[in-house]
Amino acid sequence: MKLNIVVTSIFALGLLVVGCSPPTPTPTPPYWYGDTDMDGYGDPSVYLQQQTQPDGYVSNFADCDDSNPDIKPFPYAFEVPDGVDNDCDGWIDEPHYIKISATGVELDDVAAEWDCVKDPETGLIWEVRTNDDGLRDEDWTYSWYDSNPATNGGFEGYPDNADNCYYSDRCDTEKYVEDVNTVGLCGASDWRMPEIEELAGLLPCLSPNCMGRLAIDTGYFPNSVGYYGFYWSATPYGTGAYVASFLGGHANGTSSKSYSDTVRLVRASP
Q1: Which of 83, 172, 218, 262 could lock 145 by a disulfide, CB 3.0 to 4.6 Å apart?
Q2: Are 59 and 32 in contact (CB under 8 A)?
Q3: Dihedral, 224, 228, 232, 235 alpha carbons, nearest 10
């Protein structure tokens, strides 16, 4: 008789446990950052943590001077020679880029025409895209192709899987590198595809603060929209490769090597 009581009690307890719902966890409150100058960008040193957004606070901490609404992250503000970091990129009164002519000569910052840009911080020289239907037009696209097994990640990609470039008989990244080196852009013939970390260095404005805007300094890199702002890197990822978005402000996406994206070549300073 005692055994029956024990069994019945255990059975009843089991029903009770099955019938209970676990408590709903309370979500962690987000951080909000003070926006005294009401420019939409928060001060990283002034913050609250709560579920609802308080008045005078925003969800980002991108401001470097919350007392001046004209100072905010690039590309919503641009540097001017006034002894202040106007665009919150850590530089004062740049240019920190140098314009370079088609023959490789460094130009004054006021030059109206240039074909390449040098980054003295990294020593890299970058191709500047055009808007003239020529070899380097921003709208041309290329499939990813690298015939070198030491650098292609185990899959070479697709030669001529696009049909939208200056020499339309073959529109892939390897062929484009060859073509640019043949013409000797900016007096050089050692142009190459950039690694994803190098492309990321051109993006001072990162998602989500620059969604819908060009996240690259268009004062030095005009004609940068390209094919929805996506640019190939040389960095493979399985059957794809990493891309940087100059529209979305990120450099952690990937595309299939069969896709058609834009290219911006790079080389080291001599």
Answers
A1: 172
A2: yes
A3: 120
Residue 205: inside a domain, yes or no? Answer: yes
C-alpha 68/C-alpha 132 separation (Å) is: 40
Answer whether residue 154 is part of any domain: yes
Element of type H or E holding 17: helix 2-19
Give the tokens for residue 183.
């013409």
Q: How many domains does the chain have?
A: 1
187 conformational bin, left if phi > 0, alpha if psi -120 to 50, beta if neither:
left
The two structure tokens encoding residue 28: 């962690």
Domain of 118, in residue numbers = 95-270
pTM of the model: 0.67
Give the closest residue to 168 by CA, choosing from 193, 201, 143. Answer: 143
CA torsion sign for 113, 115, 119, 123 is negative
pLDDT in tens, the chain (270 residues): 334 444 344 334 444 444 556 677 778 999 999 999 999 999 999 999 999 999 999 999 999 999 999 998 876 777 777 888 888 877 777 667 899 999 999 999 889 999 999 998 889 999 999 999 999 999 999 999 999 999 999 999 999 887 799 998 899 999 999 999 999 999 999 999 999 999 988 876 544 444 444 567 888 999 987 656 789 999 999 999 999 987 767 788 899 999 999 999 999 998
Which amino acid would we find at residue 248?
A: G
Q: How far apart are CA 52 and CA 41, in angstroms?
A: 17
Decide if 254 is inside a domain: yes
- Show the tokens assigned to 20: 């209970």
69: exposed, middle or buried (Cβ count in 10 Å: 0-12, 13-18, 19+): middle
